[in-house]
Each structure stands twice: as structure tokens, then as C-alpha cells.
Amino acid sequence: MDYTEKVLEYFRNPKNMGRIENADGIGKVGNPICGDVMWIYIKVGKNEKGEEIVEDIKFETFGCAAAIATSSVITEIAKGKTLEEAEKISNKDVVEFLGGLPPIKKHCSLLAEEGLKSAIEDYRKRAKEKNEKL
Amino acid sequence: MIYLDYNATTPTDPRVIKAMKEYFFEKFGNPSSIYEIARENRRDIEKAREKVADLIDANSDEIFFTSGGTESDNWAIKGVAFALKDKGNHIITSQIEHHAVLNTCKFLNKIGYEITYVPVDKYGVVDIDFIKKAIKKETILITIMHANNEIGTIQPIEEIAKIAKENNIYFHSDCVQTVGKIPISVKKLGVDMLSLSAHKFYGPKGVGAIYIRKGTKIETLIHGGEQEKGKRSGTYNVPGIIGLGKAAEIAKEEMEEEMKRVKYLRDKLEKGIIEKIPEIVINGHPENHLYNTLNLCVKYIEGESILLKLDFEKIYVSSGSACTSGSLEPSHVLLACGIPHEIAHGSLRFSLGKYNKEEDVDKVLEVLPKIVEELRKISPFWEKK
Ligand SMILES: Cc1ncc(COP(=O)(O)O)c(C=O)c1O
Ligand SMILES: [Zn+2]
After folding, report:
1. CA distance B38 to B160
2. How many contacts (CB atoms, under 8 Å) link A and B?
3. Could you list the pLDDT tens digit for every one of the 385 residues in chain B?
4. Contact B328 A14 (CB under 8 A)
5. What totals of helices (H) and strands (E) does chain B contain, helices first?
6. Nearest chain B Cα to A41, which residue?
7. How many angstroms separate the CA atoms of B385 and B381, rounded?
8. β-strands A52-62, A36-46: how paired?
């Protein structure tokens, strides 16, 4: 199976690339030895109900077209969602959004899910540490 | 389109297509029949055989037509392994062979043969001392490729052939990447068997040949109607064989000019890339390489993404990254050269040929630096290194 048009389009024009200075949480996943590495940065804010949301999100990725496209897609899906909703985004959602991925590329899409979860986890850990200090 | 993947395959030379054309309709005969159109086919096949023999300085009765490089490699290795199974079960090859050789050896290993994989240095040159030490009384075959398809490094075949001969061991060389590109003499190389493939030098796909030195003990793999003196059965691929012959003839005539022209283009590309893009690693031997092949690693980014961005610009190259190989491992050749995984993932191979022009190189030199910059901008390893 080849890449879908949608994967190529997202690879060609990825959204939300780059770094967030003073990010509230950073998820660093993957391993350069295996070929794909993804860093997800989040800025956390609040919605009108006072729930914590992903106010801003960016990525930096070393990897193939699938890794770059899935990075972009997960940031787009997650943006504006509450942390609870964002945590539930799975690699399946990402793959579906892209109209499928070649079977050997599934592992690349797992990184996107892990990266976002790990960024949220990092945020929570930092928040907890801050609370303990207060 | 800018095609820079000639080591993968080449376009068929229009003169080759023209030569082949008649053999589909007007001269469609089965050469094994006895009437005149078949006799004519036979004569034409023998002419093609002579042209192939001529290209590699062999006698035409030592050339057997096959379906390509893969079959020739299989035949040489399994054929000797089966023929000499009472003499021994040990085969020496290298870590950087094409999969046509590596997977054949893997199969033989599964059925009881012992295989030694000779390591290479950082340039991809096989360790001759290692070969000498690996030889034992059970060794029946050494098979080492002439030029590597990924990095272009050329092996010291004459030296290895001498060692094989001194030890009374057959020597096969996969010359798929050199036949038609550089002058080859089976006598000078000292090989007992040699594989070649038409589609790597402007001939059609699915046809090739093997040179088997007269007197070599080798078993037949494809049994049937006893074509090719009973050594390789199957109705002759007449158009393919004619095409191979024509490609061999053209290669012999035009090789010298081509070598100079393509070398200039490849070297210009290398120099330009090094000048315009920081942190590039050039792979393969700095001098002893195929004049058309440039393999390099772009640090901090991944090969498939570069390849696809070039593809968007209609520039076609290949990569040895894991993400293009269908496995999680980058190219076995680059790893064997000691290149770390994370750098090997960023490999690109440019292989040039007859229809490339200087503008093609200029275009790559204009486009590639931008692509690398874009991808490095989103790489977590760039800047922060
Ligand atoms: C070094 C080498 N050996 C063998 C082959 C296989 O040849 P063919 O495609 O004719 O089967 C190739 C081509 O990919 C090659 O580069
Ligand atoms: Zn990948």
C-alpha cells in the first residue's frame, strides 16, 4: 500500500511545526536508532468552563513522511481539546483521519499518540511539583 | 522528470527497443523449432550471445541467458553448492552483497551449508585477510560483488580471485552494477562465474546472463526443455535476448565517452552538495567507486522524507533509510560500513546515467538545500545539537 493523498498533503504542508518557548509540557518519544523521533510541545490554558485545555501545540519530528504527517494531524486534532479529551486521542484516530497508512508505517503513527500523552503527563508532573512547592 | 536512480534500473535505449521490436511479431518464432524462422531466431540469439561475450571478454559458449541478475546469482551459488556438496559445504560472501546473493546464502544455510559473511571497512571494501583466514578445506565457493549497488564501492576482485584460485575454490562475482558501465574482462578479473543484468545498462528488464568458465562444475537449477545446452531450460526470451545483445554492443561502443561525461556530472553534484549543505557525510570509497554513484547521509533528518520532497519536484532518487526498506533497519550496507543507525537513516543515493544533463545536476543543487533546510527546521536534533 502506498501513502494516501492525504498523508502526502499533510507531509507537504504540515501544520503546527516548530517549538513552543516556555512550553507547559514536552513529550519526547521515539528513538533515532529506529528512525523516527517526535517532540510534542503544549501550552495549557482554560476554557470558559474552567477546564484545562490544549491552548497551543507544536511538534518537531525527525522521521519519515508518515511520522511528519501524523505529528501534524495529532496537533490539529488536539488543539482546543480539554486535556482529558486530548489524552484519549489514539493512533487509530490519527490513521483514520489520514485515510490509512501502509502497514509497516503503523509504528510511526503510534509515536504521535505517545508523544501527546507524554506531553500531557509532563505537564501534570510539573503542575504537581509546583503545587507541592507552594 | 529528473531521473537519478540508474542503479535501480535504466530506461531502455530506443535503439535497443528498435532492435527488439521485430521479434514480437515478424520474427516471433520459437528458436527450438526447426523451420527457417526458428533457425533465423537461433542465429540471432547466437549473435546476441557473441555481443555479450564480447562485452566481458569471454567466449560465447561460456554465456548463458537467464531472467536477470537475481537468477544468475541464484544459479552460480546454488549451482556450485549442489554440484560440490560432496566436497564441502562452506561458502564465503560479504556483508554488503545484494539480497539476490544474501538471501540465496540464507536459504543454503537453512539446508545445511555454512556461510561466512566477510566484513568491510568504513569505505565498504571487503577485508581480504578475513577471507584468507575464513578459508578451510570445506570451502567450495567465494562470492563477492564487483561494485556495490548502494555505495558504488568497487572491490579488489582480481586479488580475491587469486586467493580463490590458490586454494582451489570457485569464485563468483555479482557484476550487475559494473557490466556495461566499466570495461570488464572475465580473464583479467579471474572469475569462474559472473552475473550480469540487461536493465542496468539500457537493456530490457527480466533478462540477463551468467558467464560460466568452461569446465566449472555447476548444477542446473531450471529443468525442462533442455534449452541452453540443457543447462537452463525455458523457451527463449527472444526479444529480451536481442535487447541484451544490442545493449551490450552499444555499451561497448559508447562506454568510454559515457564514463567521462557521467563522472563529471556525479563529481559536480558531490562538490555542490558539500558546498551548499552543512553536515553531509559521503559514503563509499572516495576514489574506488562507480563513477555514476553518489551516496551520502544528510545528518539530523530522515531519508524517506527527503526522497519524497524531491519526488514532489519530480526528482527521483533512492534512500537506504529504514522507512523506505520495509523493515525497521536502515541499509545493511551502510551499517556494515559502521555508519551509526541515526545517520544511516538519512541516506540518499544518486545514481546517474546516459540521459542526465548538466541542468539536472544544477536543478538538484538548487532544490535540495531548500528541502534539507525545511526538514532540518522541524527536526528536534538540528540547532540544539
Ligand atoms: C548488485 C545487484 N545484484 C543483483 C541485482 C538483481 O538483478 P535483477 O534485477 O536483474 O534481478 C541487482 C539489481 O537490483 C543489483 O544491483
Ligand atoms: Zn517512519
Report:
1. 42
2. 71
3. 999 999 999 999 999 999 999 999 999 999 999 999 999 999 999 999 999 999 999 999 999 999 999 999 999 999 999 999 999 999 999 999 999 999 999 999 999 999 999 999 999 999 999 999 999 999 999 999 999 999 999 999 999 999 999 999 999 999 999 999 999 999 999 999 999 999 999 999 999 999 999 999 999 999 999 999 999 999 999 999 999 999 999 999 999 999 999 999 999 999 999 999 999 999 999 999 999 999 999 999 999 999 999 999 999 999 977 665 566 688 999 999 999 999 999 999 999 999 999 999 999 999 999 999 999 999 999 875 4
4. no
5. 13, 12
6. B380
7. 6
8. antiparallel
Which of A12, A33, A75, A101 is the best substitution to test chain B (most B C-beta atoms within 10 A)?
A: A33
At position B356, the amino acid (one-letter code) is N
Looking at the complex, does the CB of residue A102 fall below 8 Å from at least one CB of chain B?
no
What is the SS3 assignment for B377? helix
Closest chain B residue to A64, measured at CA = B305
Cβ pair B341:A32 closer than 8 A: yes
**C-beta atoms surrounding B179 within 10 Å:** 29
Residues with CB under 5 A from ligand 2 (ion): A 36, 63-64, 67, 108; B 323
Q: Which domains does chain B have, with CATH numbers?
A: 2-6+255-380 (3.90.1150.10), 14-251 (3.40.640.10)
Alpha helices in chain B (DSSP H): 14-21, 36-55, 69-83, 99-110, 128-134, 157-166, 186-189, 238-276, 303-312, 322-325, 332-336, 341-344, 358-377
Enumerate the active-site residues of A: 34, 108
In the β-sheet with B170-174, what is the strand arrangement from edge to edge?
Answer: B63-66, B208-212, B193-197, B170-174, B139-143, B90-94, B114-118
Q: Is the CB of B203 under 6 A from ligand 1?
A: no
Ligand 1 atom with the smallest distance to the CA of B68 is 10
